[in-house]
Amino acid sequence: MTFLVAAVVFVGALCLFELLLTFAVLRRLREQGEELAALKAKHGHRYDPAVLTGKEIPVTGHDLVGFFDSGCPTCHEEAPHFAELAVHHTALAVISGAPKDVTDLIELLSPVASLVLGDEASELVTAVDIQAFPTFLRVSGSRIDQAQTSVAALAEPVPSA
């Protein structure tokens, strides 16, 4: 009889352990599902910078504006092309990120463009409603005429309406 009681207690403890393990797995799966849903929502749509066309930009006096971020590999790839185009324009480069991470962008763009860095850059990104980096704008006065995510597309003439 003692063996039967011991076996029932052992099976009960084993079932309880497996039940706790199942709850832990379900909790972890739920967390992963929430993380995946957040990622899908974050990258679920393709950003079209053309939505910026016609908006007002709070900085005037520049006809070419580029928005860069320190953690953006494409920004570092597009920066030399922007610098080439900026030589022929009055350009503004808005560079977001920690100062130590943007030194290469600063060195490349400072000879050909005015720079906005740090908190001012973050405020300008928010004010213009930039949703992707890099973003390049052609500006007339304070009105955005053209917005693109590549310098090559921006260098093309603006289609007339």
UniProtKB/TrEMBL annotation:
SUPFAM superfamilies: Thioredoxin-like (SSF52833). This is Thioredoxin domain-containing protein. The chain crosses the membrane at residues 6-26. Keywords: Membrane, Transmembrane, Transmembrane helix. It comes from the Bacteria. The keyword Transmembrane applies.
